[in-house]
Design brief:
Layout: H1 8-14, H2 22-28, H3 51-56, E1 66-72, H4 79-92, E2 97-100, H5 108-113, E3 121-124, H6 128-140, E4 146-149, H7 156-169, E5 172-178, E6 190-195, E7 200-206
Length: 220
């Protein structure tokens, strides 16, 4: 058992003014958590619509109030299909879904056929230099159930801002990025990479749980 002296630094930190307590900000944003303590998100996720995926994610689905990073070898490999069951359920319940600077114009009939209420779907047009800022503002707004963005130049600091914004706005954030970023550190709560050779998704990181040993083949 840890001694009282071992906890003295944390007690001293808690006595500092809020402006000098960056650890509190990180804990609130769930980018770090206390060792030996549950992250508090288990079984609080947004169902993905894929039973095999829900079964291995510690939150039982897409993490809420958090950023999920989907790492892709190219466009059009099924990344949107992966999210459609969740987005359809959200819009059916009256939640708003925002697409920030998508690389292609969404094909409305296909989205509607997948069950989305198009009245609840917003497409935000933004130049590349403004897209990251727009993504963050949509996440932070509190007006969206989910926000999808395609950040091209986001570094770890920018991704951390997106993670904090998703927490502040109480929504699910999805960053769809090139697979080359897989080697870089990321504060996203969940990271998944699509493996073309196997036709499967590999979970690279899942906050609050262990990474599954095997990739998942998900039927769209």
């Amino acid at each position: 058992m840890a001694s009282a002296e071992a906890h003295a630094p944390l007690r001293a930190l808690s006595a500092l003014p809020s402006a000098a307590r960056p650890l509190d900000d990180l804990l609130a944003a769930r980018t770090v958590w206390h060792a030996g303590r549950s992250s508090g998100v288990r079984h609080a996720g947004e169902p993905t619509g894929h039973a095999a995926l829900d079964a291995v994610l510690p939150s039982g689905g897409w993490p809420r109030k958090a950023l999920t990073e989907l790492l892709l070898p190219g466009d059009g490999i099924g990344e949107v299909d992966l999210l459609l069951p969740t987005l359809a359920r959200m819009t059916a319940a009256g939640g708003r879904v925002a697409l920030v600077a998508p690389p292609y114009i969404p094909y409305a009939p296909a989205w509607q056929a997948a069950g989305l209420d198009l009245a609840q779907l917003e497409v935000v047009e933004a130049e590349p230099r403004d897209a990251l800022w727009a993504f963050e503002q949509c996440l932070r707004s509190g007006a969206c159930a989910a926000v999808l963005g395609w950040p091209q130049t986001a570094d770890e600091r920018a991704l951390r801002r997106l993670q904090v914004a998703a927490d502040s706005g109480d929504c699910c954030g999805f960053a769809l990025r090139d697979a080359r970023h897989a080697i870089n550190a990321s504060p996203a709560a969940l990271r998944m990479e699509y493996l073309c050779e196997e036709g499967a998704w590999r979970v690279r990181k899942c906050r609050g749980g262990q990474v599954p040993a095997q990739p998942l083949r998900l039927v769209h």
